[in-house]
Structures are given as structure tokens and as C-alpha cells.
Design goal:
Distance between the termini: 31 Å
Strand content: 25-35%
Largest sheet: 5 strands, antiparallel
Shape: elongated
Order of helices and strands: EHHEEEHEEE
Number of strands: 7
Length: 179
């Protein structure tokens, strides 16, 4: 029986993949930042307009204003921080500041993720592969079940303030060639 050939990856191919995902992430965050900012800003404005015109107490005007403003700043700040991180990655990508390194899976682990949404509590089992230098990296169930401790991966890493893995490829399925 013939064995399936490994897919060949090169630095140029990896760079194109990084560029594609980085552009998609930046577009996604920009649209979310703009639309969410517009909608939240409008809702906060309407809520404050209604609150300031209805209530007479100064405290009933200040407290909701601060709470709504805080929620707005937290959400927008989070999206803005993610956008800045992706822009830093874009800058590193343009300079070619990424590496493809080989790392071995130390062990596999599972963690319970608690999610609260709309009065519902969801428990979800998240699966991780743990690497020596990069720590735990969340993976999907297929990759988790196909991988065992000791397997090697090609890790595509940005060295920003600290190393960050953006892509990974199993050595079972891929072969990296410096061209």
C-alpha cells in the first residue's frame, strides 16, 4: 500500500499563509470595532439621553453613565488591543521577522472551560497540546486525537515581546524545505 506523500511547505508558502490570515484578522477586527463602536455609542447616547431627562437625582445620572462608559471602554479597548497586536504582526511579517522551528509535544491535556451566556452555564472540554517553549496551545478535537506525546510540529513563530505561535504543521503530514 502506497503511503500518502507529505505536503511540502516553504518559507514563501508560510509567509503567504501568514499574510492571508493576518489580513483577514485585521479586516474582521476593523469592521467589528467600527460597527460595535457605532452601535454601542448610539445605544449609550440614547440611554443617557433618556436617563438624564427622566431622573432628578444626580447619583442616578452619574452611576449609570459611569457603568455604561466603563463597559464601552472595556469592549472597545479589548478590540483595539487585538487590532494593535495584529498590526504589530503585520509589521513583523513585512520585515520577515518570523521563524519556522521544530518542537516536540511534551504532553496533551484537557481543561474545562466555563462559559456564562444569557443565564446559561456551559461547560466545555477544551483540548491542548503542550510544548516546551510555547506552553499550552488550544487545538481542535481531530488534531488532538491524532497527536501523541513526542510528535514533532513545525511551529511558525513571531518573536514580538514574547514568542507567539501563529501556525503549526504536524511533521507527519508536512515537510518543510528551505528554498
Amino acid at each position: 500500500m502506497e503511503r500518502d506523500p507529505k505536503q511540502i511547505i516553504t518559507r514563501e508558502w508560510v509567509e503567504n499563509e501568514l499574510r492571508f490570515y493576518n489580513t483577514a484578522d485585521i479586516k474582521y477586527l476593523t469592521v467589528n470595532l467600527f460597527s460595535l463602536g457605532l452601535v454601542l455609542g448610539l445605544l449609550i447616547y440614547l440611554a443617557l439621553l433618556l436617563g438624564w431627562s427622566v431622573t432628578a437625582s444626580l447619583w442616578l445620572k452619574i452611576v449609570p453613565t459611569c457603568l455604561l462608559g466603563g463597559v464601552y471602554l472595556i469592549i472597545m479597548g479589548s478590540l483595539l488591543a487585538q487590532l494593535i497586536e495584529h498590526l504589530m504582526e503585520r509589521r513583523a511579517l513585512k520585515k520577515g521577522n518570523f521563524d519556522v522551528v521544530v518542537r516536540q509535544v511534551q504532553y496533551k491535556t484537557e481543561k474545562l472551560d466555563h462559559r456564562y451566556a444569557a443565564r446559561h452555564h456551559h461547560l466545555r472540554l477544551e483540548e491542548y497540546l503542550v510544548f516546551d517553549q510555547f506552553g499550552a496551545i488550544k487545538v481542535d478535537h481531530d488534531e488532538y486525537s491524532r497527536t501523541s506525546a513526542g510528535d514533532e510540529f513545525y511551529m511558525v513563530v513571531y518573536y514580538l515581546p514574547k514568542p507567539k505561535v501563529r501556525l503549526r504543521y504536524s511533521k507527519r503530514s508536512y515537510q518543510y524545505r528551505e528554498d
